[in-house]
Amino acid sequence: xxxxxxxxxxxxxxxxxxxxxxxxxxxxxxxxxxxxxxxxxxxxxxxxxxxxxxxxxxxxxxxxxxxxxxxxxxxxxxxxxxxxxxxxxxxxxxxxxxxxxxxxxxxxxxxxxxxxxxxxxxxxxxxxxxxxxxxxxxxxxxxxxxxxxxxxxxxxxxxxxxxxxxxxxxxxxxxxxxxxxxxxxxxxxxxxxxxxxxxxxxxxxxxxxxxxxxxxxxxxxxxxxxxxxxxxxxxxxxxxxxxxxxxxxxxxxxxxxxxxxxxxxxxxxxxxxxxxxxxxxxxxxxxxxxxxxxxxxxxxxxxxxxxxxxxxxxxxxxxxxxxxxxxxxxxxxxxxxxxxxxxxxxxxxxxxxxxxxxxxxxxxxxxxxxxxxxxxxxxxxxxxxxxxxxxxxxxxxxxxxxxxxxxxxxxxxxxxxxxxx
Amino acid sequence: xxxxxxxxxxxxxxxxxxxxxxxxxxxxxxxxxxxxxxxxxxxxxxxxxxxxxxxxxxxxxxxxxxxxxxxxxxxxxxxxxxxxxxxxxxxxxxxxxxxxxxxxxxxxxxxxxxxxxxxxxxxxxxxxxxxxxxxxxxxxxxxxxxxxxxxxxxxxxxxxxxxxxxxxxxxxxxxxxxxxxxxxxxxxxxxxxxxxxxxxxxxxxxxxxxxxxxxxxxxxxxxxxxxxxxxxxxxxxxxxxxxxxxxxxxxxxxxxxxxxxxxxxxxxxxxxxxxxxxxxxxxxxxxxxxxxxxxxxxxxxxxxxxxxxxxxxxxxxxxxxxxxxxxxxxxxxxxxxxxxxxxxxxxxxxxxxxxxxxxxxxxxxxxxxxxxxxxxxxxxxxxxxxxxxxxxxxxxxxxxxxxxxxxxxxxxxxxxxxxxx
Lengths: 421, 421
Known about the structure:
By secondary structure, chain A is an alpha/beta fold.
């Protein structure tokens, strides 16, 4: 990184927020360093489809440096940020190298969290990274394999019980995909067990699934889940998770597979900067998305909390994209001596699928459900994927599942350090 | 596994040998148990393309139980075999359950091996499983990433040096793919290093690459490799491998990435049975592929050594397929009271690619090289893949690379136990 004398923008994070900031800076007279600890941008909304064998990891992930290869002013660094020195104006990496900035955009996202119950994590893994997804895929498929070899009927029943904790979009989408995996894809593949007898239980502490959606869409989603065969338990928060068992209200269910879709915790960005954070670790940024006391530092996406139009901005991918673009525009406006724009979040809509024939979509001006919703969801997601190759590849995978019920990524792979070769 | 009174065939291994045995038993009056420690059949000839980011794991692997789902007489078990009790006639699994057989087919393959230098393994990993491939992919991509961040020119040079040990098809194909990854795919993606300056060195102890091919094809392959920019060192066996350095003859080369493509060791099947094995651990089977002293036990593929037409049968996928089919035919003939056929290996050909524009193919009656060879190789491999979905998917991936040079599976993923989330 030779100093060209240009304004130096450092972006931490190559997710929706960081990448859209980099894109919005195109043409600006700046030099950019884009830092991520992973080499790939991940399309998180489809991660549950990797976990449930419909898509393979490379269909929803792209090398970050390939995405910005045509932008010579962007240097991509694979590295773990360990801190930010806001006085010296540089970012510190894990090998103690420093990356100086004039403007900094922090878009480091969030991770699933257990809010005081970290001991639950090994028994109820969550879903944020590609590795989380392939681990979840292995756990799901191994449960059926072990059930096929299990002679004890009680143990077999527990192996064929799948519990999802959390009734937001991730929990709903996982529940629908798991029951279809059992009832359609695996139906004819076993000789001792009947995969279609698998029990899928979705536990939501609140009074309805998809609590951030309109009530009528929550009600529709509940019915669609139940029609698929998913049991839904509402209004009883989970009080205990241990190996092979989960307790909610007065009920304890034995289940070999318990998956966590209930909570997220922001990245440690607030700690790097020593600024105030809310209970979920999110920085309370100013209305222009700058960090209080640091006008040259912006934070966007799931690692911040901000109010726009009198309402808190939701933790969704599109909010991160809009935040990233806004931070870029403020930087450009300042360089030009213009008045920076105000951040106004525009909510495009809420969207979730239930299995492969129903979805709920709320664009505000129109609501879609059923198979129309599903097709709209599918087309929208193919549109948002990056590049022709992945669009064709995902469309092919979905078409194949739609026509045959076969899912093409039913692989049990192990930790590479393991000995299962 | 209820006893139906039918002849019970147990097949250990769902690779080329075991799967073709199961297919050849179609229609026979037997019940079959197919045991594998992995849930997937792997198309090993294309594994190097997963390691070098051209294909994703699910494009070359299929759930075994899905492949035999239409055969109700086949029970698939995911399990690790720990022994065979040939007196009691049952197979022992890792949970001490036993699977009784009347006829047994062992098709357990081989694994890469270091022949007295097991301490080399951590410094020079090999390629046999999907996990090996994703680990190799990570190592290759991380070398470029680390080089981009490395200030010391000597260390940077070592990071951009890639050594392949072994000049057989795997070493040749890896070398060609790695240099194209560097010179084409990654060319424009870095700002500090020039990936096209990467040094790829192929070391073969013998006097020519592809030693099992005809001499003129070895000579062609050598020229094709050199034209791509691969350095080839012949006639000097590797004498030392340590972290970051390899020694052959009087030369020591510093390289961050050293990959092993030199030797294989058979599965422990000979130990299970307590029968004689050769230096590579392979069972010396009878001409009908039965294990000496055990006419009801057959062993096929890479875990055996056998002579046919006066020549040793090579350790290639097609030989395993033919062996599996033969064992099935002997079992059927015996059940019918007919004279079992003799095993006659028919060599279909030798085939290897060098990058994405050259290949050498020897069908015996015709030899193909250059781009004609490459297209014949591509069509043959798409033909041998299982299922329409994977054929279309692989064809799409190759077409994309051919047209754009972009490889779609350039993902650095970590061991799921790791903390890189």
